[in-house]
Amino acid sequence: MNADVVIVGAGPSGIFTALRLVELCPDRHIVMVEKGLPVERRHCPKDKVGRCVGCTPCRITTGFSGAGAFSDGKLSLSYEVGGDLPELIGADLAQKTINDVDQIYLAFGADDHVEGLDQPESIRKIRLRAIQAGLKLVDCPIRHLGTEKAQEIYGRIEQHLLDHGVEILFNTDCRDLVIEDDVCCGIVAEGPEGELRINARAVIVATGRRGADWLEHLCTAHGISHQPGAVDMGVRVEVRNEVMERVNDVLYEGKLIGYPNPFRNKVRTFCQNPGGFVSQENYDGGLAVVNGHSYKERKSENTNLAVLVTHNFREPFNQPIAYAQNVGKLCNMLGDGHILVQRFGDILDGKRTWQKELSRSNIHPTLPDAVAGDITSALPYRTMTSIVNFMLAVDQAIPGFASAETLLYAPELKFYSNRVRMDEHFRTNVRGLHCLGDSSGWTRGLMMASVMGHLMGGYLAEEL
What we know:
By secondary structure, this protein is α+β, with helices and mostly antiparallel strands. About 30% of the residues lie in helices and about 25% in strands. The chain contains 13 helices and 21 strands. An 8-stranded mixed sheet has the order 4-12-13-16-11-19-17-18. A hairpin with a 3-residue loop joins strand 14 and strand 15. The relative contact order is 0.20.
C-alpha cells in the first residue's frame, strides 16, 4: 500500500495532524493505523458486567481518540499546563495554537463554557491557602468535554476524516518502521488480513502514553535520537465532594505542586474529577493501572484526582518506563491482578486496609472491584514518603483532604518518560519520521497533543 502520509495512532495528535492535512491538502492520501476500535465501538464491558474482563487491547486506552478522551475529556487552555512543548516551539506559538485548536473543538460540538474564569477573588483565597501550606496553585482555564460527550465529539471528527478520504485501518498494530539509508519510508503493520507494508513520504508516530514503551524500543533499535526523561508514579486519591467543594466550584480542576521534605521530589495533583469515578486501565502485558473519569451528566458523591511523584534518574540507569512498570506489577501482584486501595489513616498507622473497613466509611469507593490492601508494600519508600507529606500539606490548604478515611488507589503511572529529540518542526534525526503527543515525551494531555498534531499538519502541508 502506498500513501503520502501514514499516521500511527488515532489519538489527539494523530487526529489533528489528519484534520489539518485534509484542510490544507485535500488531495493527499492519508492512512491512519490504529490498534483499537472506532470510537462508536469503544465500550468497556465492565460497565455491564461490573468487573474488568481483560479486553486485548484495552478499549479504554486504545481506539479512535486515544486514552485521554475516555478518561475525562478536559482541555487545558493555558500553555503552562500539558508538558514541555513550549520549550520546543515557544510559549507564544503554543498559546496561539491552543486558541486555534480550541475553536476546532468548539466547531465539533464542545461545550462553550470554560471553568475557572468566573471567581477571581475566590481563586485568590485558594492560592493564599496553598502558599501558606508551601504549595503552588496553577489555575488553568478548563474546557470540560466530559467522558460521554468527548465520545460524541470525536465521533463527529472520525466521520469528518472518513468523509474527506482519510483511510483509517482499525484493529491494525504497527510492528516496525521501514528505514532505508537513514530515511523512514513506511511501516510494517499487522491487521485482520495479516501483515502489510505501507510506504509513505512522511511517517507520524503518535501512539500516546500506551505506546511510549514501544516507541522507546524502536528508538533504540533504529538509532532514533532520544533520551530518558522523568517518570511519574503515585496514587489516585478519592474524597467526598464536600471536601473539594470550593476548589471544584471555583476552578473545577486546581493543580497543586509541592516539593515536600525530605527528598524534595516534585509532587503534583493531576486529572481532578469532581463527582467522578475511579477507573481501571489495562496495558500490554496485563498491567492494570488506575485512572479517573468525570461525566457531564452522571455524577458520584466523590471527587478523585491523581497525586504523582516525579522521579528523575541519572546515569547509568536509562529505563524509567520499565522501572515504573515493575512497580505497577508489584501493586497488581498484591491485589491479585486488581487495583489496590488503602485508607490514608491506615497508612499513617502502619497497617493494611481490610475490605470490611471500607463499608464503615463516609467514602464509598467508586471502583468497586478494587482490592483493599497495603500499597506501601509495593510503592517505593521515596515515592510513598513524598505522597504522604504532600497530602498533609494539601490538607492545610483543603481541610479534610488527608482525613483518615481518604482512599488511595495504586498504581497510578504515567508513561511519557522517553523523550524523542526533534527540532521545532518535529523532525527527528531520521528523515521522514516525526513523533508526536505523549509518546514523544513532549506533551501531557489532550490539548497539547492536539496542538502538536495541528502544527504537524501545517508543516507537512508545506513539504508535501
